[in-house]
Amino acid sequence: MVTNRSSVDPIAAPRPPKVAVRAAKKRGYAVPMDQHDQTGRPDSGERWSKVDAGGVALADPRPRWRTRASTTLELIRANPTGRITLKIFITIAGAIVVTVGVALIPLPGPGWLLVIAGLGIWAVEYHWARRLLGFTRRHVQSWTQWVTRQTLGVRIVLGSVGLIFVAVVLWLSLKYSLGIDVIARLMQYLATH
Fold first, then answer.
1. Cβ(58)–Cβ(50) below 8 Å
2. 36 three-class SS
3. Other Cβ atoms within 10 Å of 24 Cβ, number
4. What is the pLDDT of residues 126-183, one digit of tens each?
């Protein structure tokens, strides 16, 4: 005769899977198995560390908040409902930030910065956004390094061109979106005074 075991029975209801521990071990991290105090932190204060080929533990180069965030994301992705919810949340949050950034591009301010921040939000979940963000980061860094190698005169010219570009974009934005022609008003003011 077959009997159903109780859901409280330890054999029928094994402990929940340690998703974060399995993921950390799969990546080569040595997970400390010491006892935790009541705050949930290890007593020894050790952080996870990578193990090199010789078996020597190496310190984790990532900041503690980044390790915690990636562990939390792995725990959320372990549940099918959590995975779908996370994807929807990341998609909506990234779309809002990118949309606001695109709307602010013509105006002086953090338009491009918000577009890149939105790509960073999407990069949490989408591989294409991660690649595009890496491409952007590489080109911004190479541009910055190139500009810093130039002489002061070239930097002044580049800054002037940037300021003229922002002024033209602001003038066109005011003229065609709000109907305010700053140049015509300035010419009229100069003619009357």
1. yes
2. strand
3. 20
4. 999 999 999 988 998 998 899 889 999 999 998 898 889 878 878 887 888 788 888 8
